[in-house]
Give the backbone structure.
Amino acid sequence: LKLWDKGKKLDGLIERFTVGDDPELDMELLRYDCTASIAHAKTLERAGILTNDEVARLTGVILEAQEQGLVITREQEDIHTALEEFLVAKLGDLGKKIHTGRSRNDQVMADMQLWARDRLQELSHALVNVCEGLNGFSRSHPAAMAGYTHMQRAMPSSLQLLIGSYIESLFDDLEILLAVYVINNRNPLGSAAGYGTNLGLDRDYTAHLLGFEGSRNCIYVQARAKHMATLFFPLCSIMKTLDRVASDILLFTMGEFRYFSLPDEFTTGSSIMPQKKNYDLLELIRANSPVLHSLAHRLDMLGMRLPSGYHRDFQLTKGAVMEAFAITGLSLSIIERIFAHLEVNEATMKESMTPEIFATDRAYELVREGVPFRTAYRQAAESLSSLEVPEDILAGREILQFSDFSEEIRALRERLRLLFAS
Amino acid sequence: LKLWDKGKKLDGLIERFTVGDDPELDMELLRYDCTASIAHAKTLERAGILTNDEVARLTGVILEAQEQGLVITREQEDIHTALEEFLVAKLGDLGKKIHTGRSRNDQVMADMQLWARDRLQELSHALVNVCEGLNGFSRSHPAAMAGYTHMQRAMPSSLQLLIGSYIESLFDDLEILLAVYVINNRNPLGSAAGYGTNLGLDRDYTAHLLGFEGSRNCIYVQARAKHMATLFFPLCSIMKTLDRVASDILLFTMGEFRYFSLPDEFTTGSSIMPQKKNYDLLELIRANSPVLHSLAHRLDMLGMRLPSGYHRDFQLTKGAVMEAFAITGLSLSIIERIFAHLEVNEATMKESMTPEIFATDRAYELVREGVPFRTAYRQAAESLSSLEVPEDILAGREILQFSDFSEEIRALRERLRLLFAS
Amino acid sequence: LKLWDKGKKLDGLIERFTVGDDPELDMELLRYDCTASIAHAKTLERAGILTNDEVARLTGVILEAQEQGLVITREQEDIHTALEEFLVAKLGDLGKKIHTGRSRNDQVMADMQLWARDRLQELSHALVNVCEGLNGFSRSHPAAMAGYTHMQRAMPSSLQLLIGSYIESLFDDLEILLAVYVINNRNPLGSAAGYGTNLGLDRDYTAHLLGFEGSRNCIYVQARAKHMATLFFPLCSIMKTLDRVASDILLFTMGEFRYFSLPDEFTTGSSIMPQKKNYDLLELIRANSPVLHSLAHRLDMLGMRLPSGYHRDFQLTKGAVMEAFAITGLSLSIIERIFAHLEVNEATMKESMTPEIFATDRAYELVREGVPFRTAYRQAAESLSSLEVPEDILAGREILQFSDFSEEIRALRERLRLLFAS
Amino acid sequence: LKLWDKGKKLDGLIERFTVGDDPELDMELLRYDCTASIAHAKTLERAGILTNDEVARLTGVILEAQEQGLVITREQEDIHTALEEFLVAKLGDLGKKIHTGRSRNDQVMADMQLWARDRLQELSHALVNVCEGLNGFSRSHPAAMAGYTHMQRAMPSSLQLLIGSYIESLFDDLEILLAVYVINNRNPLGSAAGYGTNLGLDRDYTAHLLGFEGSRNCIYVQARAKHMATLFFPLCSIMKTLDRVASDILLFTMGEFRYFSLPDEFTTGSSIMPQKKNYDLLELIRANSPVLHSLAHRLDMLGMRLPSGYHRDFQLTKGAVMEAFAITGLSLSIIERIFAHLEVNEATMKESMTPEIFATDRAYELVREGVPFRTAYRQAAESLSSLEVPEDILAGREILQFSDFSEEIRALRERLRLLFAS
């Protein structure tokens, strides 16, 4: 039976349409639904609605459900119904008391926020691990190479400067993630269907039990599309970084560049062309940015033009959020793995440093002799053919050398530890 | 073994990442892969690469695979590998000949285009069925009601005018669909990896066998993200129509309006509020427009900034296209079902026709007496309080009466029959 | 004064916010507002509301306004107000009659549809011109080159095959455009605010006068966001084609490829690097695809979740549509210009044809000797080092030779002539 | 002359296409270009490239330019060229020295980041002002009303709970904004074209002069599309909040609700219907959310799939960012103004509290008598007809009473003061 069952059977097509893929998605929420249910039961006790003994018995059976797992039938629709029915089956009338003072509206938000909190923590660690991997890769690969602008060789650059740009990009992504972590960490329980109850539930107590920093306004809890869209900010940011990383490597592994390569166990072949060695996994990282962003756009749209209060439209946010975290987490893992195996061809990189990319240096030589830059620029433009690659490319360019991010990484790890412990 | 296997085992994480959900998605493509494979075999025969007997034997086993179904293992990655391995298992060396002169690149496009052709045909029929249902609903529900602009009651209108607007909107959607049908119906086979072969395959013959109108330029075949994005034009158009339908009904079933209602077996309840009767299925129709459009945006992005030729990014178009057709088809079915059961409350509709919405008519009375409209407008504005609801609301407004679309619907059915038969 | 003025002055900030940039945008609509107004006046005459003489006088002054141009003040908000005030200033009470039986709602749609009809015609011609230019370019540039998949050299290809892929892509775009042209060409006038009038206006007559094919359902006329979004289908399609063209050229002009180059008057430089020659205009074509698609997404969103009837939200569609047509038209012009000056470096193209891209041919040689393809594939994979570039690359590959599209282009021109003449 | 002029004139169409609307947009950047140029000159002095006297003379003329304003010609393209030419005109060779060690690439980023810093500060203050306005509105409007779920009356609620949900939503938006503020506040200068220089410029000194917290990796500076997309996070978040506010008011001002109204000077009329009073400004707030989000999507797309380094595509981010900040700032102002004048109809609000929305309370009565909730729910469902509106609606619902945010607002003002002062 559905929680709202009133004796009428739902049309079959309609049931399929409304239930959707919740039974599958909700499997991921079981442990969070259990955690939130226990905290809710304790809050009911404090309000005098359940006895201490009732809470103990409910808690026992909830933990039993969490441990053994639940199967969610389509008739049940969701994890919330499955858990309540499990409690009723085991505890009879006592099970029928668990939903006092809550609605699926606040229950889903509690589950999703607890779920997201764990995912954000995991993602933070994964991100810092990637930074550490990149830093190690950078340390061991001093290599000069051409820097490009407008798809054309432009200036002397280095692999270490490039890797540093990835690390700083991820640092920014983490900054957004941590702001979102704080925003996510507010208690939704007690808001019930969005307008609270008259049962005198102590929301601060529930917040405390669940590790939330205070409670959210009841109506605002139900702005679910916005809350879920907020979770996308760091994900989009990370995928933008990884898109750039993948685009760089895909360009630089082309036969015309050969700055990088990957061992065979990281590449794929063609069903028709015997010679092909394809960097599919980088193409898929690159392709996951559109996928991720399209999910973010979905969330942007799902909340549009809806008056306050819960709407069933919000149900469709769940799958998108879960897919998005999975994509981002997996992409970070792949990138970490790639840099553990990426082979650098320092010789071809060096060859990319053709004389003309030193034209600006030539202008600066003239500047040092007192020629105003704009004049020097025009003179250098006229003597391009006489340019040569200098002996010491790095002269005056500390910027192209290894910049060690170990200290920042250590500090970030400490910051995560403190934030997540609270 | 994968088709491109060269003896190196793919890293586990990488395999999971690159294979993705193709094994599941490809189950839908089996019959199309079989159809395309048989046509390809016949083309190989015409080119002197296979004998008539070989084609017969291949055809037999291909049909066997189609009938019994194939299980696609993750090791196999996709339906194309599974089918080739099935042929090899049954026919030995002969099975190893089927991939001569083709690549998975053109094979996937052949499968997807044949698949899309069937889906577009189904969708066309479903759309016309909805139009027929709407026309019947309109015929039997003459009811005057207020027309709204800027969310405010504005002018006298009618349910029949409103339903007519849905029908015409669907007609436009079908127009786009049929243009896309024609564009989709071009043979991709023979393009192999995107640059053809030197085997002298007769592409026009393949096109003829598969019911395509001519063959596509080989490189253009591989602009897969664009081709798949083109399929979204009619889907987006249809969902825009259904979004408006759902938004209308959701507004007009609010307790403050009560123009419409649905029987209990089409509505859901609340886990906390005993009195609730929710129109979830209309909220989900409405929510499916963002979902659909976000998938379209995904396709828009997946093709961006890629040079010509196949990229693995394109693989991620498949799931989006399949999901999009499923959403649109299901939404049309739901809408058809809704209008078969929608209850109209003519009394509340009539009550919505408050006197002030006849203010423009009042101005027109003055116009008929010779007052210039802008002057009449200002005079009417000053006498709003004296307005009354006229006895005969429809007087001079044939536009508010039933407009029968039966003839157009019949003509569309004939047009579909001719186009799809060719 | 605003058309709806009732004596209260709008708050200053509010006026700025609501008027927006209509006064500027509407300058483009003057001639269409004039055309529509004359047709409307004639329809009023047929309904007995204006005399023949009044129509003649109105027509005269309307044409005067069209010829001399109108300045739209912010107080007037829009072209419709400016024109009505001009008529009142010149004709007194007669001018106050022009708005009888219409609303700005249907008037704006009439203007926009007439405007879009002209733009679609222009775009069609521009598109065919680009095809013709590409066909001429292709004819005079037989050049073999490597074909790429997964960003890697894959198979022998040719510039002519590549150009053919652009032409066919544009042909598809035109197919969508023409379907949209037909959908756009329906009369909105007579729908007034969206619910018609009781004045007995002959909408078919208006349609005839304006060259529309029949009239649209009154409420459907007001689904403006959908109508405007429909106009984006061909624009998005065209920009997808041009994105691919630009991405190809940008890759192939890189110093590592040098297949193409452009004369200096088509490239830009750097403020700091004297040697730079940048292909900004191709980067901007490429960048215009995101711009265009974001405008399309805007239209997708602007119509979401709105019940039937006009909403002020729709006003924000106008600027987006105008910008989108301008971008697309300009991009087509730039592409046409580029191909009139693109320099082809056949030598570097030829060098790109490295031996390994003939590996598939090697497998086919074995196939011709009777080896099953999958076995041949594996044998070829083992002898990659012995591959050589063949003397006659085109042998057996008619597909790489010039495919003349002159006939298709001629037929398209004729088709446009007939459609646009009707 | 353009900064990169080398004696070849750009094709006219190409110039128009590449220059775009930079001359107009850049007017907003003049003061930031001046500020950044002065800091750059001082850094050149510290590197021994300019003398103290030269810096003083440059600074004088730069401030002169800032004060008098500059006109940017299309030939000049942008503010950077206009300023350099102004310096050359006034100072001769000394003016030609200003661009030493910088590129327009880092210069544009410096301008945009300084510009964005000011805008983010303004937006923060505007947002807090709106919160203060809302808090005052809430304080003075204790009013019970129905709360809705699924577009249906659901539970007793209050205007004060609703307003609180707006305030908390804005608080979250501000949290994102401040994280973005910190990310934005990193020095880009010294990165030149993206790869630094060999001039030994002290980037930390430049950072100090401009109030930045440290300097960004040179290559990362050029990930402009990402940096600009990051600025959109708070803007999207704010517009999501305002969309909900506008959607609520638009629903609740409908004739069927009449909970709210606005004085005439905040509403508009119809050109045809004398009685209309339209809430256009709220429709436009609502419509600005799609506009804003489409600009965000543009930025998402503009950065996709580009390898590291500057691309001209990034130039198209500027207009979008400027438009987005303008929209958001204006929308906040409008909302503040609206709540200063919004009229509340407590009587119609009270009427919305129909008996059935107390069904859950009825179930809770049974719960208090010891009936398990799920049983109580079913019993309450059977006795809906006997429900009555209670005397004291707020009994047991402190949640529906005024929640004062004055203290949080004060703390936020202090937080802004400290952050922006640093």
